[in-house]
Amino acid sequence: MIQVENLRKEFKKTVKEPGLKGSFKSLFRPKTERVVAVDDISFEVPKGEILGFIGPNGAGKSTVIKMLTGILTPTSGRCTINGKNPTVSRKSYVKEIGVVFGQRTQLWWDLPLRETYGVLKEIYEVDDKSYKERMAFLNETLDLESFISSPVRTLSLGQRMRADIAASLLHSPKVLFLDEPTIGLDVVVKDNIRRAIEQINRQEQTTVILTTHDLADIELLADRIVMIDKGRNVFDGSVGELKTRYGQIRELNFVTDSPDPKAALDYLRHFSIGEEDVSVKCEGSAVKVRFNSSAVPVSDILAYTLETVHVNDISVKDADIEEIIRRLYKQGVE
Predict the structure, then answer these.
(1) Within 13 Å of residue 183, how many CA atoms lie on the same side as its CB?
(2) What is the CATH classification number for the domain harbouring 127?
(3) Which of 193, 195, 199, 180 lies closest to 62, judged by CA?
(4) Would you say residue 164 lies in a domain?
(5) How many CA atoms lie less than 13 Å away from 295 in the CB half-sphere?
(6) Whole-model pTM above 0.85?
(7) What is the pLDDT of residues 32-72, one digit of tens each?
(8) Closest CA to 266 of 318, 301, 297
(9) Do 95 and 233 fall within a single domain?
(10) Helices (H) and strands (E) in the chain, counts
(11) Fewest CB within a 10 Å sphere: which of 101, 184, 195, 307?
C-alpha cells in the first residue's frame, strides 16, 4: 500500500549574525545553510497494517508524514501510496487518505459538528446512502451522538479528537495518517480512541501510520515499528524484535525494612559497571532497580541484593517498550 524509497528532504535556512549589522547583512547578502531533515529513508507498509512511526523530537517524523500526504515535495527519492504519487496525483490521491494532526483541527470552529460533516460530505463527493451508512458506523465506533449537534468550539479536547478522527474517516480512506492522535487526553479517552482505531483497522483493513510519543499507543496498536533519528532509519521491525534486540533491560522490584537501602546497595562499585547500566529508585520501603542484564546477569543482581538487605517481597520483570526506547534515544543506535 505504501512504498517509500530513498526519501530525502532538504531545507535552506538563513543564518543571521547578531546585532543591527547582522540584520543589514542578512537583508542584502543573506547567508544560508542547508539543513537535511530527512536523509535517505526507505520502508514499505502492506495493506491493513498499523505502523508505529516513532523518533525523538526533531527526528524528521512530521516531515516524512507531510511528504507522504503531499503537503511537501521530496528533494529526492520516491513515495507512492496505493500506486499514486502524493504530489503528482494530488486531487485524486487525497480522496484515498485521511489525516489527523493532533494539534490542528480540520473542523469548522463555529459550525455544529453535524453541519461540518455535511460540508466534508460534499467536498469528498460522498453519496447520500454511503454517508448515512458511514455516519451510523462512526457514531457507533466513536460515540459521537452526545455532541454531534454542538458547535466545534464547545467540544472538549477528547470530543474534538474523536470528531477529527471521524472527519478523516468520513470518505472511507484506504490509508489513515495519525499524528499524535492522543496528545493531551486522559486515560479513558485514550483507551476509547485506541479501541476505535483497532476496530476500524480490523473491519475495513485500513492501513494506518501512527506517529506518537505515547509508547502505550505503539505497544497496544502497532504491528510494526519504524524508528528514525536525525532523519535516518535506525530500526524497522516488530515490537517483539525490538525487545529481543535491545530489551536486555530488566526491572527488579522489592520491598525491604532495611534502613537506607539505596546507600547500602552499591551496584556500581560491586559489579564495576557504569550509571547507564543500573539505576535505583526508592519510594519508602519499595525499591525499583533497572539494570542491563547483558552487563550483569539477573542471578548476580538477585544474589547481591538478598545478601545486602533484608527483603520481604521481590519480583523481576522485563522493561517496557518505553524504557527500551528511552535508552535508545539517549545512547543512540549502532
Answers:
(1) 14
(2) 3.40.50.300
(3) 180
(4) yes
(5) 18
(6) no
(7) 788 888 888 999 999 999 999 888 777 888 889 889 988 88
(8) 301
(9) yes
(10) 13, 13
(11) 307
